[in-house]
């Protein structure tokens, strides 16, 4: 369970984020939604501990900021919007960075690296130099790294900032489907910034709609994301299109 109370983050006397209260259930996939600049990445960074604001974030009834760094690194992993490395690391070495907080024998780490490369469709890239990969390949390698980082946790929390932004259509669905399975089978709590309404409707248990730094609404995407709400915050009127047997919004 993640509980947020009176969370405020300001820059030069301006509120970037101001959330009075909100909770997220463990083992669920929650989307952070809202227009550009509304505060979604700021919220992820506050939960990750990369930014410090006022107020409180509790994770499984413990104050997040009080959890020792190493323990926090084993429970909480963050996939940022972009991750460039200037050193010519091999893909396998990049994923291995996720094992730094884990106290595991080498053989187990190697097995876990292989497993996470496999589920992110990166196994064929393992010997390649990371800087030479495409944007989508780099994003999947980083996903493998963060999955490895939380792989020993009993209460894993995965924070993803636009995890499918560089992926082709097939990879977008493969990744979101894999993340859903992690929620259901391994009870991973996932919070992801997502812009695609159809992806949120298809894969997420709940959504938080953020606008101008405030939490406007939370709930099941199928009831929360009404045409009125989409029109109000995104200034766009979605149309329903029947694609095969599925209705999609365009
Ligand atoms: N260091 C900073 N200095 C000044 N303003 C900042 C700083 N960091 C963020 N902001 C502002 O805070 C607001 C929220 O930024 P944030 O990155 O959280 O938005 P977002 O909802 O993730 O946007 P996007 O969908 O475009 O990624 C934006 O208006 C941004 O310009």
Widest beta sheet: strand line-up: 6-7-8-3-9-10
Write out the CATH superfamily name: P-loop containing nucleotide triphosphate hydrolases
Any idea of the CATH class?
Alpha Beta
Estimated structural class: alpha/beta
Largest sheet: 6 strands, mixed
- From the spread of the alpha carbons, the general shape counts as globular
How many helical stretches? 9
Query: From the alpha-carbon coordinates, what is the Rg to the nearest angstrom?
Result: 18 Å
Description:
The chain has a single domain, classed as Rossmann fold. Helix content is 35%, strand content 27%. The chain is globular, with a radius of gyration of 18 Å. A hairpin with a 2-residue loop joins strand 4 and strand 5 (62-63). The protein starts with a strand and ends with a strand. The chain has 250 residues and is α/β, with parallel strands linked by helices. The model has no long low-confidence stretch (mean pLDDT 93). The structure holds adenosine-5'-triphosphate (ATP). Adenosine-5'-triphosphate (ATP) is lined by residues 11, 16, 34, 36-42.
